[in-house]
Amino acid sequence: MPQSAPTAPKASGAPISPGKKVALKLWRDRFLYFLVLPGLVYFIVYRYVPMLGMVIAFQDYSPFLGFTGSEWVGMRHFGKIFADPEVVRVLWNTLYLSLLQIVFAFPAPIVLAILLNEVRSQLYKRLIQTIVYLPHFLSWVIVVGLFFIFLRSGGIINRILQAYFGFDAPIDFLIEPAFFRPLIILQVIWKEVGWGTIIFLAALAGVNPDLYEAAIVDGANRWRQIWHITLPGIRSTIVILLILRLGNVLDSGFEQIFLMLNAFNMEIGNVLDTYVYYKGIQQSDFSFATAVGMFKGIVGLILVGGANYAAKKFGEDGIY
Predict the structure, then answer these.
(1) How far from chain centre, in Å, is Cα 88?
(2) Tell me: the pLDDT tens digits for 183-200?
């Protein structure tokens, strides 16, 4: 009989299938995934599952008929967003207030972080950090309540103005429309400026100290060092946080705005968040309110994508 050709020796280890590789990696890092699990469950339950309810934006939804029994109307509710002059006014209020927050509230943590970075006494620096962190842990109910106490007609601010600055009558800070937006910005800065410095202080810790020493040798003062070393050192962090902030440009903060609204400042204070509440909850127009909420999400997605594209064009990393 003719002898068969010799076969190649088998490899000592058989190839592992892709599915088995994934399983091995999951088992190897199982404790890390257990740490991620609570956050993952939170996003699934409170972020992704509620998205199923967006279907009512395309229906004339009735709670008595449910999702399956309500009439489908397509894009009709989205067409009403710009056909209703009240929606246009509310959208303008939201954009204007968000622009003010980006211009004034967004740079505040950067400035405070740079000032804290210049403090040489660690004890004094930690004391200031603790003081400015505390308002973040207060609810908006408490923050607005404090502003009401200080700014009401018989509050301490009006008493000081009348006693030391010659004002004859108290100023109606809380019902005068002209004061609504400045008060909103002041509240946001006071409550969140300290908490916002955490990321920027971490970024500042990564700036090479040798650059400051070289700048001192070259005769640069502190302002020059901040402008040419500190700010460029945290530029990427600033860009990323600004991109993320643009994604929430139509979110003005429901709780804060709702607590500050009254019959006198409703014209300029009503924003998309409160408008959705009034239309969806008080007037039971669930479909239209959901359409407005979807519109907010689409605008935020477009702004994030556009800002990320622009950041990459200017040489920054972006968020993806």
Answers:
(1) 23
(2) 999 999 999 999 989 999
